[in-house]
Amino acid sequence: MEGRRPARVRNELLAGIADVLQNAETVRQPGGRELWLSMLAEELAQTVEPYTGEALRPWLLRLIERCATVRDGLSCLARSLAYVEQSSTTVMAMWRMADEWEAVDFFDGADLRLLLPALQSVGPSGLATLARRASRSRVQELPPWCDSGWHVFLRLAGSNSAEGELPASMAFLTLTAAWLVEEGQRDAAEQLRRWNAGQARVWGLEKEMAEWQTAGFTPAPQSLVPAYLMIQFEPDAGDSESYYLSHWRQSDAEGWHPVPGETVHLHRDDLPAEVEKLVDAAEEMWADLRQPVILEFILPWELLNEPVEWWHKESSSASPTPLVMDYAVAVRSLERLRRAAWHRPWRKKWEQLKEQPAESEAYRPRPTGDLSYFFHLERELKEDEHAVCLVLSQPPGGDETGRQEFLAGLRAGVPAMIWHRGDCADPLFREAVSQLVQDRGLGSLAERAAQWRKEALALGPGAWDGHVGRHLAILLDDPERKPGPPGPERTPVES
């Protein structure tokens, strides 16, 4: 399995990239080409040779060779083209070529095309699970161009591995070979194993390879650990009607590794439509997921009373679907996430709720109208270590009472809060809350609230407004589940 010499492998790759680019509309049109080159120069942090009207292919080959000498240069080439063409077929092809260049470089110029027939037969179903296991959960999701075992192998070849650890791409080959055996493709499996064994000998990783081969391939069991789509709205300080929407997807059943998406700048009126797009995209990404999915909205103060769980999917149809029909939905506080000084009591209260749910209590304040009311509310919440849930007497988006009660709960570290979005004095709400917290055990708070919402759904759009489940809001804030940094900001979406 010696294959082509390294120089030929690299030259043919560069020629293949030129084949892709010279057929791209952006490259062939002067206006698009100038914009692409400008963005490429910014990505590379270097000047780029302009096109002066000469033969296109020689100029492209010089440009590609220049990028290939820069760290991550071919990825910059693909990324800058994506800025202009978004997810065109040319951009997808460029990302595949960039991944192959990185993989060839990682394996010291080896002819990886020898593995193509065996890996190309492995289709998209289950690839994300294999990649996640091979990368030890470092890779949670695959980009859209990784639709076969071949492209996943190339992508993983650039993944970081600890010293003395079998590289993720080689671990992927081991798992894929075991899967091929299960599928009756023993010849293809043996081809992968021989190549892998030879590479392990070269790099002195025979022991690590043996450990992976012993583990073999076993289908991942259905997990009861939920997947999360976390959506955060951050106010634009310069425009009270605009927000930065960030999101994270977390589907790793073995650890908390949220994957950030892009950040979008939107007018408030456009938030529901963008959330619908994110939910649809997550469902496509998680098409083979066997876990329940939870939606969490991280909301700033001014959006806390927004009925986000009743926003829609399938909004273009005659019968849109409320999110709450398909998902458990919870809200969280952006202010608390951002205020580290509130995190110690928050963790303490959460531990109480998590470890001793039967000893946890809900606190129902009784506003006195006295100026010292909020001071004493915060004091009592802090002194009572069992008080882990606060039932607000007013919606937080209503008058000052609701706002100050909510603030007292945040300062005291209370992880759960309940309110009626319209009228917290509603007798039906008071009765519902009494049933929610009657046995002092708050461990199933979310499940009980979900039941009320299901009962409202069962009444249908014409009658559900009369059910308390339609107006019940629950903040359930887990300090152990924090989003990572937001993803990169993209061009604002015009309203």
Describe this structure in words.
With 495 residues, the chain is of the alpha/beta class. It folds into 2 domains: 210 residues, no CATH class; 250 residues, no CATH class. The protein is built from 20 helices and 12 strands. Helix 1 runs antiparallel to helix 6, helix 3 packs across helix 5 and helix 6 packs across helix 9. It is elongated. The model has no long low-confidence stretch (mean pLDDT 88).
Shape: elongated
Q: Into how many domains do the coordinates divide? A: 2
Tell me the strand percentage band. 5-15%
Alpha carbon gap, first and last residue? 57 Å
Record field, number of beta strands? 12
Nearest-integer average pLDDT: 88
Radius of gyration: 27 Å
Helix content: 40-55%
How are the secondary structure elements laid out?
Blueprint: H1 6-22, H2 25-28, H3 30-44, H4 56-68, H5 73-85, H6 89-106, H7 116-120, H8 127-134, H9 149-156, H10 168-182, H11 186-203, H12 206-215, E1 227-236, E2 239-250, E3 259-260, E4 264-267, H13 271-285, E5 293-299, E6 312-313, E7 321-322, H14 323-326, E8 328-333, H15 334-338, H16 343-355, E9 361-363, H17 373-383, E10 387-391, H18 400-412, E11 416-420, H19 427-437, H20 445-459, E12 472-476
Helix pairs in contact: 1-4, 1-6, 3-5, 4-5, 5-6, 6-9, 8-10, 9-10, 10-11, 17-18
